[in-house]
Amino acid sequence: MPVISFATSKGGAGKTSSSIILGTTLCEGADVVLIDADPAARLIRWSKRAPLPPRLSVLQSRGEKHIQDEIAEARARAAFVIVDLEGTASRLNAFVVAESDLVVVPMGDEQQDADDAIETLAMLRQEGRALRRDIPAAVLFCRTKAAVKSRLERAINEQIRGGVATYSVELKTRTAFSALHNVGGTLRDMDPTDVSGVNKAIENAQAFAAETIDMLEGVRNAEPA
Ligand SMILES: Nc1ncnc2c1ncn2[C@@H]1O[C@H](COP(=O)(O)OP(=O)(O)O)[C@@H](O)[C@H]1O
Ligand SMILES: [Mg+2]
């Protein structure tokens, strides 16, 4: 079933966190496989911290020689396959992107993030040319301030939104999202008296998952019959 990957050349942009947030939300209603294709294996580290929900499985990619088989096998058994990538251009990344129905490009509200996102989108267009197909991609603003944006942040945000496909949902900077890495498991496992804003984070995650499903639907409808 559909393959969603998270890619951007910027380290710390939010790829791994957003993959976890999407995977742990979608698995509430469907079988999901999360593939860690980053040798740093942060997703795997998260997955070992606490028991996983029943409909979610996590696997560590064995690398570029295996990734295509791993994705094919995951596709056959899950409704959604999510791949977390490393932040550098590699053959592994190129193989994953080629298999993706949607590439999510996470970025913050800073100029450096915008430059990296634009560079990543250009790379995706180039990969698409080589494959003779468009690789559907969308920018996801994440780690953005929960409070009102500054004028500069707003300008960067608008510049991106005016130019490229962008999620309307933003994954704000939330303690519950960063806490996922420390405690493992899902947002629903968190005690709202322990971690502030868990319910808002769950709502935010659900809106992100719903918009991802809409995007995949849009991609499917745009495909030639
Ligand atoms: N929406 C968010 N809210 C709070 N912290 C976040 C959010 N997204 C990412 N982070 C934090 O930012 C850091 C980098 O995020 P990560 O997902 O590991 O980026 P990447 O995988 O792109 O390198 C981590 O410490 C993570 O906890
Ligand atoms: Mg990462």
From TrEMBL:
Cited CDD domains: ParAB_family
InterPro entries with a match to the protein in the record: DNA_Partitioning_ATPase (IPR050678), P-loop_NTPase (IPR027417), VirC1 (IPR009744)
Name of the featured protein: Chromosome partitioning protein
Species this chain originates from: Tranquillimonas alkanivorans
